[in-house]
Specification:
The protein has helices spanning 4-14, 20-34, 37-40, 96-103, 126-136, 152-162, 168-178, 194-206, 224-241, 252-257, 307-310; strands at residues 54-65, 68-80, 85-89, 111-116, 119-120, 137-141, 212-216, 244-248, 260-265, 268-276, 279-281, 302-304. The protein is an alpha/beta fold. The strands form 2 sheets. An 8-stranded mixed sheet has the order 6-7-8-3-9-10-11-12. Strands 2-1-4-5 form a 4-stranded antiparallel sheet. A hairpin with a 2-residue loop joins strand 1 and strand 2 (68-80). Helix 2 crosses helix 5 (126-136), helix 6 (152-162) packs across helix 7 (168-178) and helix 7 (168-178) crosses helix 8 (194-206). Mean pLDDT is 79; it is low at 1-19, 25-49, 282-286 and 296-312. It binds adenosine-5'-triphosphate and magnesium ion. The site of adenosine-5'-triphosphate has 15 residues, from strand 1, strand 2 and helix 4.
């Protein structure tokens, strides 16, 4: 297995995202882990079953721009129960990735509070959040974010080694086999197809059996057939591990696989309810999930989400 230097480069690479704040956050995660702040200085506790595994209260995210203050998220309130599968949908630029990053503790809100598996992320500094993420969170990103200098097996071993778990090689070998890549252990990412790379990323995300798995457009860089296989695998592993899954997607068929659909527009949640057959079923839903226009009953009981309108 690669040494500490490779691992350092590795975790930094895992977290390379669109926003610099997010990538810096994941980069710093490695420092938190290697200095073992995980259990010693971070008062973690597990929530009782009745409490949501993920909760956000009055989240706003604002950034400064030459044109003035830009509001990316506005008054977002959310509670997700353990074992739930939730899709976050909305047009491009609606704030989906920003919301996911805030919920996962990769980015900080401007105001509001977030709890993840009983830990108030918004009361922790970056090292504290990194420790919570390492212990409770898995990520799958659109562009895989495998470490190019590590083999498939070493990529999957990385989160185990960084948290000092024993038998990392054996556990990672099993995880790689579970995504059908047992014979590709020694291959580097450049020697794998896009679908295979995403399967390695999924094995890496699940290998430490996180309470929560976040996926941001996991099929965005894959062709339809490969994407469908990857999604099948994601949901299969999710069922087996009973992980809470929060997935950002433009793909209605992926959203429909989730028990719940959350629609976000211009940084606000405009619909949130159980999903079935492309419909958001929400008691008293006040707004059209696509346009956010007010709905009159009985439309409000089951607002139709047309497939073509899910796409941005
Ligand atoms: N660090 C930042 N500074 C300025 N604007 C930002 C920053 N991060 C995000 N934004 C803006 O916030 C809005 C929401 O971005 P976000 O990436 O969350 O959208 P999204 O819903 O994930 O879009 P897509 O479907 O295209 O991925 C966009 O208008 C984006 O340009
Ligand atoms: Mg996005």
């Amino acid at each position: 297995m690669a040494g500490a230097a490779s691992a350092d480069a590795g975790l930094a690479c895992i977290g390379v995202l669109a926003t610099s704040a997010v990538s810096q956050a994941v980069e710093r995660q490695n420092n938190a882990l290697s200095s073992r702040v995980l259990t010693a200085s971070n008062p973690e506790r597990d929530m009782s079953i009745a409490e949501p595994v993920l909760k956000a209260e009055q989240i706003t995210k604002q950034v400064s721009s030459p044109e003035g203050t830009l509001t990316i998220l506005a008054d977002v309130n959310l509670a997700i129960a353990a074992g739930e599968t939730a899709a976050i949908v909305g047009t491009s630029g609606a704030g989906k990735s920003t919301l996911l990053a805030v919920l996962a503790g990769l980015d900080e809100p401007s105001s509001g509070r977030v709890w993840l598996n009983g830990n108030e992320l918004t009361s922790l500094n970056e090292d504290g959040r990194a420790a919570v993420r390492a212990r409770h969170v898995g990520f799958v990103f659109q562009s895989f974010h495998l470490v190019p200098s590590l083999t498939a097996l070493e990529n999957v071993m990385l989160p185990l080694e960084l948290t000092g778990q024993p038998n990392a090689r054996k556990t990672a070998t099993d995880a790689l086999a579970s995504v059908g890549l047992g014979t590709r252990r020694t291959h580097y990412p450049r020697q794998l197809s896009g679908g295979e790379q995403q399967r390695v990323a999924i094995a890496r995300a699940f290998v430490s059996r996180p309470a929560l798995l976040f996926a941001d457009e996991p099929t965005g860089n894959l062709d339809t057939t490969t994407g469908a296989r990857v999604i099948e695998l994601l949901f299969e592993l999710n069922r087996a591990a009973q992980t809470t899954l929060v997935v950002v997607t433009h793909d209605l068929s992926v959203a429909q696989r989730c028990g719940r659909m959350i629609r976000i527009e211009a940084g606000r949640i405009v619909a949130d309810g159980l999903s079935a057959d492309g419909r958001i079923l929400a008691e008293g839903l006040a707004a059209d999930p696509v346009t956010a226009a007010p709905l009159a009953p009985p439309q409000a009981a089951a607002a139709r989400l047309e497939p073509e309108r899910v796409k941005s």
